[in-house]
Here is the input.
Amino acid sequence: MSDCESLESLGINRAQLRPIRATLGRLRPLAATLATTCMFASACTPQSDSGPPRDETAAVDTTGPSPGRVYADGACASCHAVTAGQSQSPNPKAPTFETIANTPGMTLMALNAALHTSHKTMPNLIIEPSRIEELSTYLHTLKR
Here is the structure.
């Protein structure tokens, strides 16, 4: 049974679906743009550097860098500061990964969603789904 047949069994006909589909078609790109804009607008807000310096040696990982960190070093580090404690990205317009991770409301799910959408100020990179998961997991480790 198709979706249309299911809706017709509820008394909704195809003619009634046309304006709903048209509205949804217009809202999808807007929702993605809004989510991305909010993420980067808040990430670009100046951050104060108050507080004691972080001890980078306190949490040494003896197993080596995570797959997400390795991917970030190869694919993202030419524009973004990808390591904890870096205060400036190579591209001054690109927020640091730590800034992105600490954006209010930036959950693991939000990071994953953000990496699935293109950004106007970035090259149109296509990241494989498995890499998106690794990268969002790594970004989430930078949350303070």
Observations:
- The radius of gyration is 20 Å.
